[in-house]
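Continued from yesterday's entry.
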Amino acid sequence: MDGALKNELGAVTLEDKGTTKAPGAIGEGRSFTRGKGIDCGKKITSYPYSGNSFTSEAWFRAEPEAAGSKILYWGRYAKRYNGKTGDGNEVGIGIASPPVLGWASDGPGGTRAEDPYVLGPWTHVAATYENGTSRIYVNGKLSGSRSRSSKRATMSIVQNICMDIGG
């Protein structure tokens, strides 16, 4: 991302919510302090929905105060959307405290990395979901996996979602 926050695919409309330009892993990037991020839109219809497979990924470099932070979020928080929890309407990649990477949903998806996360270096994280199996890859290596085989194994992500980076 450069100072103009451009979207190459046209699927989202980006709005800066207090980030600043910073050196990236390749070219310019953005610096996110706690509570600051990028709003990517409130009514996105081109992302995976229902129980469809997906991969969400990000490059980031986290400072020590980042434990407990969100890296990437997309979906529609179920309780606000339909009054119930557990419907799988969201996907969030974050750094837990103590530092460990993971992704979660309010449904059957999600898993945590097996290895602790080392704060400081540039890191690539990818969260995947396919046929009831959630995986997380850290720097290209499978780091955690969880499978569900029950009736609740299918995500139920709605089609009209929002997305945030950081924040």
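--- second protein ---
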Amino acid sequence: MDAMWFRETNVDDDTTIARHFFQLWRDNDVPEASIQGNWLETTVEFIQNARQTLAYKGFVAEINGEIVGSAGCQLFAGLYPHVLSEQQRKYGYIWGVYVDAGYRQQGIAKRLTQMAIAHLQSLNCTRVILHASPHGKPVYSSLGFRETNEMSLDIVSHF
């Protein structure tokens, strides 16, 4: 049996996290032409900034020394001014949960998500939010996530 290892990432893993993030979009049927050409640099820079300002942590799953899955989490910067106390609203955000196709359905995404939740709990977050793909929803539901009242409108095709 192959040895599986879960660990926190370091800066040397940022490129792998970025590659997984790119592949996550591709696996969700986003055409490569719709992804900016500088996606790698943009994602690595985002991670570096989030690590410094938003308590970012990443986590990976390795099998025989090869990273086969990853997830990132950070404090949620918000969409509007912070006027509520942290005891009322301090959100954490999980993003980029990805597992290589050959290793899915083995509990890897669930374990990575649990590690991210634990980190956000250590920051005293009051809620964890994420945006799930159709394939990810069962994983997150099994961990107690519930669908919320977030609504969206695609204005490119609507108007």
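The chain has a mean pLDDT of 93. The chain has one domain: 4-145. Will compare against the first tomorrow.
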